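Cross-check.
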Amino acid sequence: MTSPKRPTSKLFGALLKYLLAALLVFIPLYPKFPLFFLPHSSVAIRIEDFLFLLTGIILTIYYLKFKISFWKIPLGFQIVIYWLIGGLSVLSAILITQNISTSVAFLHWFRRIEYMMGFFLAYEVVKANPKSIRFYLEIIVFCAVGVLLYGLAQIYLNAPIVSTMNEEFSKGYTLILQPGVPISSTFAGHYDLAIYLVFILSILAAIFTFIKSKFQFIALSVLFTGELWLLLQTGLRTATLSAFVSVSLILLLKKRFKLVLLFLLVFIVLVANTPRLTGRFDSLFRVIKFKSLISLEQLTVRPVLAVTQISPTPVVLRPIQQDRSSSIRLDVEWPRALRAFYKNPFLGTGFSSITLATDNDYLRSLGETGLLGFLSFAAILIAILKKILKTPTSLFDLSYLGIFTAMLIVATFIDVFEASKVASLFWIFTGLYFGSQKS
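Predicted model, tokenized:
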């Protein structure tokens, strides 16, 4: 679909340009301090909510003034359909299944609209001025340096932490990093930080394929290694694997095989020297190995049991063989999402109905919005994928390829499209990508 030419207006151009710049700075660098909470809930209203509200108001006036239709914007049709089905799901949950708080459900729906608002803002800005993509890339890299420095300050200078990892912390208390606790830098938790750093590593990897100066290469290598090191300190296995896949893919597409080998070497050395991460991988491998041995033992012992009629003694996993995060997903969160889907296959049980975490965005979509919501969201991802499958050529094309790949991988184990900072940035990056395309 060919997008319409963007109308020129100095006032709107300036408003949209600097509002986008403000979001790109504010989202990664400003901690998630709550302004106030919704009554009878743990849902907080924050400053970024008002920034996105302002974005929505300005974009609405802009579209009405210049008579721009959502339907003629790439992804516009798919996104609006997803919003509408999300609204129907909430109404269905309130009127039929009656299993959610009305105010909380609507807020969750509004926030999904809020996160995607960044797509339209970024798209309009870059479509009006494609050369501005460099300006925003410089802002993104500058903020990444700030996140890295603040993470170091948390480790070595006891810089404060604002976390939303549990209901008590989310009230806005400032904490200090304790031994054994994953680092979160300016983010509200180590999950958000880790996924953001995968975005940054994808962008830096793409920049690597374009620079020619030795000084730039050295400076970028230092920054890349620092961001990768910070990612590993979060101890997040899924994000680590997605970073490896995304960066390798970018470098291989540009046929930078020496950089691939160098990245592989740095990656292995850093991972091997990160006990938090190696310990978590080891616990997962132990569970897989143990279950494989049990399955093999059952296959070999079963014929003997049929003859001797001896009942095998049930084997219980010892603590050292358990992987807590995997057990929570497989035994609690994923079955809960499937039960919600079975309860209302078409529209699900509504946003917020299956608690704050499912740790699989695809199952969460099925459970909360049913088959219709899942398919409408999948339609957005498929439309993005179809665009990406065209051979990437520009720096930001490659960057976004890595970002999108990482999101698809991480969404299998984390509710990444609901994580406010990460989701907001992803949709902004998506808007930058589509806005930079010629058609």
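The first strand starts at residue 34 and ends at 37. The radius of gyration is 23 Å. Passed to J.P. for a second look.
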